[in-house]
């Protein structure tokens, strides 16, 4: 089978009204580019490539800023609820020395609070990451148990990192308790999941 000859496409640039092939010789190729990418990408394949790369860049930028703003919004909501009137401004993160003088290698300092429900009614609040702020988990666990009059224990989480399991749903009150008890933990570092 022989291919039918393609009908000649009469196409003129919407910007400079030259045939697309001549745009690059026209008066303002830069202005033609967006039109060309849309309408005659086959004439200037490189433009398309550039445009795609730009778009990818933009998308990842956008994703990043979305991520940041989501975090920010969550923190903002938490802080307005938890500590209206409190002025404990978050301190800049600094390198923590563990007992023994070892400098903890740079790991994102973040306390994560998760609530899980086991057996329908039994709820457990899991607190991860206090140790990243140089807090001894066994002490923290005792304090939490006392404060919320419930069972609290240090256990090894799925990734072998130690975490504190607290019986009951204390996720909402625990943020304030943490920032009050350990001022080194800025509220902005606490994530409620
Ligand atoms: Zn043009």
Automatic annotation (TrEMBL):
Matches recorded under Pfam families? DENR_N, SUI1
What superkingdom does the record give? Eukaryota
| Region of interest called Disordered, as start-end residue ranges on this chain | 79-100
The UniProt entry, under CDD domains, shows: DENR_C
Q: Which SUPFAM superfamilies match?
A: eIF1-like
The UniProt family comment states: Belongs to the DENR family.
On whether Transmembrane helix is a keyword of this UniProt record, the answer is no
How it assembles, according to the record, is: Interacts with the 40S ribosomal subunit.
Assigned keywords, A-Z: Cytoplasm, Ribonucleoprotein, Ribosomal protein
Mind telling me which GO cellular component terms the entry cites?
cytoplasm; ribonucleoprotein complex; ribosome
Q: Which residues form the SUI1 domain?
A: 111-182
**Which PROSITE patterns would you find in this protein's record?**
SUI1 (PS50296)
Record protein name field: Translation machinery-associated protein 22
Free-text note on domains in this protein's UniProt record: The SUI1 domain may be involved in RNA binding.
Cite the InterPro entries for this sequence. Answer: DENR/SUI1_TIF, DENR_C, DENR_eukaryotes, DENR_N, SUI1, SUI1_dom_sf
Q: Where is the signal peptide?
A: none
One example GO MF annotation: translation initiation factor activity
Per UniProt, subcellular location reads as: Cytoplasm
* A biological process from GO: formation of translation preinitiation complex
Q: Cross-referenced NCBIfam families, in alphabetical order? A: DRP1
């Amino acid at each position: 089978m022989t291919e039918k000859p393609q009908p000649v496409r009469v196409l003129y640039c919407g910007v400079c009204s030259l045939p697309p092939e001549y745009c690059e010789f026209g008066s303002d190729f830069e202005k033609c580019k967006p039109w060309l990418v849309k309408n005659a990408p086959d004439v200037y394949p490189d433009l398309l490539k550039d445009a795609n790369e730009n778009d990818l860049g933009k998308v990842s930028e956008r994703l990043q800023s979305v991520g940041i703003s989501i975090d920010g919004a969550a923190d903002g909501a938490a802080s307005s609820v938890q500590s209206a009137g409190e002025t404990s401004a978050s301190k800049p993160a600094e390198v923590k020395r563990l007992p023994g003088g070892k400098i903890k290698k740079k790991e994102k300092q973040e306390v994560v609070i998760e609530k899980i429900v086991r057996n329908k009614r039994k709820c457990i609040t899991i607190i991860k990451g206090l140790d990243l702020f140089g807090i001894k988990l066994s002490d923290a666990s005792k304090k939490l148990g006392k404060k919320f009059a419930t069972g609290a224990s240090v256990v090894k989480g799925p990734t072998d990192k130690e975490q504190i399991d607290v019986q009951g749903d204390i996720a909402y009150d625990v943020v304030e308790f943490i920032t009050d008890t350990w001022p080194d933990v800025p509220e902005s570092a606490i994530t409620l999941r």
